[in-house]
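Entry for the shared binder. Reason: the reviewer on the internal report wants the predicted structure included alongside the sequence.
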Amino acid sequence: MIAVVAKYRAAEGAAESLAAALREYTPLTRAEAGCETFVANRSRDEPREFVLYEQYRDAEAFDAHRASEHFASIAQGRIWPLLDSREVTLCDVLEP
Protein backbone atom coordinates (compact mmCIF):
# COMPACT_ATOMS: atom_id res chain seq x y z
CA MET A 1 0.00 0.00 0.00
CA ILE A 2 1.16 3.54 -0.81
CA ALA A 3 0.42 6.53 1.42
CA VAL A 4 0.66 10.14 0.32
CA VAL A 5 0.98 13.12 2.65
CA ALA A 6 0.52 16.44 0.88
CA LYS A 7 1.00 19.78 2.63
CA TYR A 8 -0.56 22.79 0.94
CA ARG A 9 -0.32 26.48 1.77
CA ALA A 10 -3.01 28.55 0.09
CA ALA A 11 -2.06 31.82 -1.53
CA GLU A 12 -3.24 34.95 0.27
CA GLY A 13 -7.00 35.23 -0.16
CA ALA A 14 -7.37 31.76 -1.72
CA ALA A 15 -8.02 29.56 1.34
CA GLU A 16 -11.82 29.44 0.99
CA SER A 17 -11.61 28.64 -2.72
CA LEU A 18 -9.08 25.92 -1.95
CA ALA A 19 -11.32 24.43 0.76
CA ALA A 20 -14.27 24.40 -1.66
CA ALA A 21 -12.24 22.69 -4.39
CA LEU A 22 -10.98 20.06 -1.93
CA ARG A 23 -14.57 19.37 -0.81
CA GLU A 24 -15.49 18.75 -4.45
CA TYR A 25 -12.38 16.66 -5.16
CA THR A 26 -12.55 14.41 -2.10
CA PRO A 27 -15.60 12.25 -3.00
CA LEU A 28 -14.35 11.81 -6.57
CA THR A 29 -11.02 10.49 -5.32
CA ARG A 30 -12.62 8.30 -2.65
CA ALA A 31 -14.73 6.67 -5.37
CA GLU A 32 -11.66 5.41 -7.26
CA ALA A 33 -11.36 1.61 -7.18
CA GLY A 34 -7.82 1.64 -5.74
CA CYS A 35 -8.27 4.47 -3.22
CA GLU A 36 -8.36 3.15 0.33
CA THR A 37 -8.39 6.54 2.12
CA PHE A 38 -8.48 10.20 1.16
CA VAL A 39 -8.85 12.87 3.84
CA ALA A 40 -8.35 16.60 3.38
CA ASN A 41 -7.60 18.51 6.60
CA ARG A 42 -7.38 22.20 7.39
CA SER A 43 -5.26 23.60 10.21
CA ARG A 44 -7.17 25.10 13.11
CA ASP A 45 -4.30 27.46 13.88
CA GLU A 46 -3.41 28.58 10.36
CA PRO A 47 -6.40 28.52 7.98
CA ARG A 48 -4.15 28.76 4.90
CA GLU A 49 -2.50 25.42 5.78
CA PHE A 50 -3.98 22.11 4.54
CA VAL A 51 -2.80 18.51 4.92
CA LEU A 52 -4.06 15.70 2.71
CA TYR A 53 -3.67 12.07 3.73
CA GLU A 54 -4.20 9.44 1.05
CA GLN A 55 -3.75 5.68 0.76
CA TYR A 56 -3.81 3.67 -2.46
CA ARG A 57 -3.90 -0.11 -2.78
CA ASP A 58 -0.69 -0.20 -4.87
CA ALA A 59 1.43 1.74 -7.35
CA GLU A 60 -1.01 1.01 -10.18
CA ALA A 61 -3.89 2.50 -8.18
CA PHE A 62 -1.84 5.61 -7.44
CA ASP A 63 -0.91 5.92 -11.11
CA ALA A 64 -4.60 5.57 -12.05
CA HIS A 65 -5.44 8.36 -9.60
CA ARG A 66 -2.87 10.67 -11.19
CA ALA A 67 -4.25 9.81 -14.65
CA SER A 68 -7.87 10.53 -13.67
CA GLU A 69 -9.98 13.30 -15.17
CA HIS A 70 -10.62 14.89 -11.77
CA PHE A 71 -6.89 14.93 -10.96
CA ALA A 72 -6.23 16.88 -14.16
CA SER A 73 -9.23 19.18 -14.00
CA ILE A 74 -9.51 19.84 -10.26
CA ALA A 75 -6.12 19.12 -8.65
CA GLN A 76 -3.87 20.41 -11.41
CA GLY A 77 -6.30 22.83 -13.00
CA ARG A 78 -7.95 24.47 -10.01
CA ILE A 79 -6.23 23.51 -6.73
CA TRP A 80 -2.55 23.86 -7.60
CA PRO A 81 -2.93 27.40 -9.00
CA LEU A 82 -4.34 28.48 -5.59
CA LEU A 83 -1.20 27.44 -3.72
CA ASP A 84 1.81 29.32 -2.41
CA SER A 85 3.50 26.00 -1.66
CA ARG A 86 2.97 22.28 -2.13
CA GLU A 87 5.00 19.50 -0.51
CA VAL A 88 4.22 15.86 -1.26
CA THR A 89 5.71 12.82 0.48
CA LEU A 90 5.14 9.28 -0.82
CA CYS A 91 5.36 6.54 1.79
CA ASP A 92 5.15 2.77 1.98
CA VAL A 93 2.61 1.70 4.59
CA LEU A 94 4.19 -0.50 7.26
CA GLU A 95 2.00 -3.54 7.69
CA PRO A 96 2.16 -5.55 10.95
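Summary line for the report: The chain has a mean pLDDT of 97.
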